Amino acid sequence: MKAIYYYFERDFVKWLRGRVTVISSLVMPAAWLVFVGLALPTKFTDNYLQFITPGILVMTTLFSSLQGGSLMIFDKILGFLNKFLAMPSPRESMLYGKILFISVRGLLQATVILLIAAFLGVRILKPIHIVLIYLTLFMFSVFFSAVSTMIGLYLSDHDSYAAVNSMISMPLFFTSSALMPYEVMPAWLRTLAKLNPVSYAIDSVRMLFEGGIPVNGIIGLAIGAGIMVLLGTYQFRKAVV
Amino acid sequence: MIEIKKLSRSFGNLLAVDNLNLDVGNEIFGLLGPNGAGKSTTVMMLTTLLRPSSGTAKVCGYDIVKDSKKVRSKISYVPQDMAVDRKLTGRENVMLYAKLYGIPDRNSKVDEVIEMMGLSDRADDLVAKYSGGMRRRLELAQALVHNPEVLFLDEPTLGLDVGGRKKIWEHIKMLKAEGMTIFMTTHYLEEAEKYCNRVAIIDKGRITAIGSPENLVSSAGENASLNDVFLEKVKTPEEQAGFNFTQFRNLLRRR
């Protein structure tokens, strides 16, 4: 268990010291919030910012999680992975430390977006809702960081990772319920959006913003995250002998 | 310390290590061979990073497949990549390993190995500011933090300048004097000749010569060096293809 934290700490300290990456990862979600959230003329709501904020929060953690697999790629191609695997501490702790770091990083970035949204006038009802928003985003992050570390372990170079990442991240976002409610979607998009795991997280967070408790959503995400971590562990063991 | 019995490993059709038998005692043992001869594959099997296709090996009395975790607690492995975190300080890099190995009283142990590798005055600088030789010594410090019985070094002096290489060798000799077994691969035959107790030359996954550098050299004839032994035992792809000197010179003239 301790080893997971040590691996987490390593990535975390390295991340904090790379000042450019800390800031750059926040620019795009903030731009969406301000330039789309405040500007897009919509008919289905008169407060689009309030509507889009859950979508942007989830997008922030989604992109951050998907980006995370590149950390695995670098540890693999630069030789760190082999050094770690030749140590007696449980080998999987390296994978779990990575998933934990990617998820925590996503939550920190989401916090900044949440603060910007609050500054722009978005309101949340009770502290319990904030806690549950974080829980939802964490489950969601674990789900996708497990996916991205799996992709990272599978691929052998950073370019193909970036290609896969850009291939899946935008379609996942646009086919979710981030930008519009299901009622105004064309039928084909509605079908896709209902199948998209990203929508589960967005719908849950949106419900929390409106004061409800999305029991099914949180349980569903927890199960999904659990399954992905198990799959990731299986693939990790297979990949490293 | 290391007993290898009929160890083989293939990748698809390629037989990287072919029926290898080898015993290594408490010594500095150098595994020499051309690129692609199976040196790294052998080291990766012994460090439990790669499963053998057939055969067995024991390190410190533990089987590398069945007791791999015990093997890992007895050894350290320094690959050729120079994998140290540039954005962490030297001390933080070593501390990570002390934590992962679960070293009791780790602050003093980390100070000790950093001191041993002569990095004390730069320990709190970011590794990004280290020279190649310092990074290699930092990796040795990481590897020594849990007092391993066997140290596996893959090309420890690769890409270092003369001074850096000499320093690394002095440290390796010192570790041997303190009772550690060192199993290493290298391309620098002069260094192997000077510092290794025994060397083996491996080509296409098979050992073609083994013994102390002195014996190998004297059997190759007068005024020979380990280079001569190596060239005699290893068929390079150029030789196999039949290198035509005249043709090559004509080719150069034409340009």
UniProtKB/TrEMBL annotation, chain A:
* TM region positions: 20-40, 52-74, 95-122, 128-155, 162-182, 213-234
Keyword Membrane in the entry? The reply is: yes
Give all residue intervals belonging to the ABC transmembrane type-2 domain: 16-239
Which Gene Ontology MF annotations are present? ABC-type transporter activity
Q: Per the record's keyword annotation, is Membrane included, yes or no?
A: yes
Question: Keywords, A to Z?
Answer: Membrane, Transmembrane, Transmembrane helix
Q: What is its main location?
A: membrane
Mind telling me which InterPro entries this protein's record contains?
A: ABC2_TM, ABC2_TM_bact-type, ABC_2_transport, Nod_factor_ABC_transporter
| Annotated localization | Membrane
Q: Which domain of life is it from?
A: Archaea
One Gene Ontology cellular component annotation held by this UniProt entry: ATP-binding cassette (ABC) transporter complex
Q: One Pfam family for this entry, by name?
A: ABC2_membrane
Q: What topology in the membrane does the UniProt record assign?
A: Multi-pass membrane protein
Protein name stated in the entry: ABC-2 type transport system permease protein
UniProtKB/TrEMBL annotation, chain B:
Localization in the cell: Cell membrane
| A GO CC annotation given for this chain | plasma membrane
Question: Which PROSITE patterns does this chain map to?
Answer: ABC_TRANSPORTER_1, ABC_TRANSPORTER_2
- What residue stretches are annotated with the ABC transporter domain? 2-229
Which controlled-vocabulary keywords does the entry list? Answer: ATP-binding, Cell membrane, Membrane, Nucleotide-binding, Translocase, Transport
**KW Endoplasmic reticulum (keyword) present:** no
Q: Which Pfam families match?
A: ABC_tran (PF00005)
Query: Which InterPro entries did the record assign?
Result: AAA+_ATPase (IPR003593), ABC_transporter-like_ATP-bd (IPR003439), ABC_transporter-like_CS (IPR017871), P-loop_NTPase (IPR027417)
Q: Which PANTHER family does the annotation name?
A: LINEARMYCIN RESISTANCE ATP-BINDING PROTEIN LNRL (PTHR43582:SF2)
* Protein name per the record: ABC transporter ATP-binding protein
The scientific name of the source species is Methanosarcina thermophila
